[in-house]
Amino acid sequence: MHIDPSDAEHYRPSLFNAIVAPRPIGWISTVDVEGRPNLAPFSYFNGISATPPLVMFACNAPDDRAEKDTLANVRATGEFVANLATWALREAVNRSSDTVPHGVDEFLLAGVDKLQSRRVGAPQVAQSPVSMECRVLRICDFEPEQPLERRSSVVFGRVISIRVADGYLDEGGRFDVLKAAPIARLHGYHYLAARELFELVRPRGRKAA
After folding, report:
1. Is 101 helix (H, G, I), strand (E, B) or coil?
2. With the C-alpha atoms ordered 170, 174, 175, 177, is the resulting torsion angle positive or negative?
3. Spans of all domains in the chain
């Protein structure tokens, strides 16, 4: 079967979401120019590089306004925090995804506490085991080319400070992924949680005989 993404009759975004999966969830906290906090999950999120430490998240334009509050905030302030979305916090993450009027504090909506960041104005999710403070490097806007498409914006950020909660690093300084149990998005209402690890040793290459 061949599917043309420009064929709206046969192409389904849910198919794309199911194929490009699992995707880490960036639980992004920001503030607007008046200092009002915002918290929202983005399932198009990932790391780009460890050296330098770079992350990205992307969002489509909503139906009810020009752009989401998170995007408007990072444009205005040039900062955001990426909080780790975990199994223990899954219900709070989901509550913060609700479509609410501008100015509503999603920290209160989700039932999580704010923790002051060290180098950016946006607060962190206190209950999250990891929060990465980020400075915006670039925002790329991709305009729709086909009917039913919406503008998509990708935010690139440099991580300038990382908070790891006590008990999540072992003696060697390695992060305990299974203890944190980060969740990832699949498609629709389906998610995955990190529950099992397996190891594959990278080939070192062989010299020609």
Report:
1. coil
2. negative
3. 16-193
CA torsion through residues 90, 93, 95, 99, sign: negative
> How distant, in Å, are the alpha carbons of 27, 110, 122, 178 from that of 104?
16, 11, 15, 33
Interatomic CA distance for residues 38 and 11, integer angstroms: 33
Say if residues 13 and 7 touch (Cβ distance below 8 Å).
Answer: no
Q: Which residues pair with 46 in a beta bridge?
A: 56
Superfamily in which the 16-193 domain is placed by CATH: Electron Transport, Fmn-binding Protein; Chain A (2.30.110.10)
- Tens of pLDDT, residues 161-208: 999 999 999 989 999 999 999 999 998 899 999 988 899 998 987 666
Q: Amino acid identity of 94?
A: N
Residues forming a β-bridge with 54: 49, 158
Tell me the sheet residues that pair with 193.
183
Q: Classify 153 as helix, strand or coil.
A: strand
Name the DSSP letter for residue 203: P
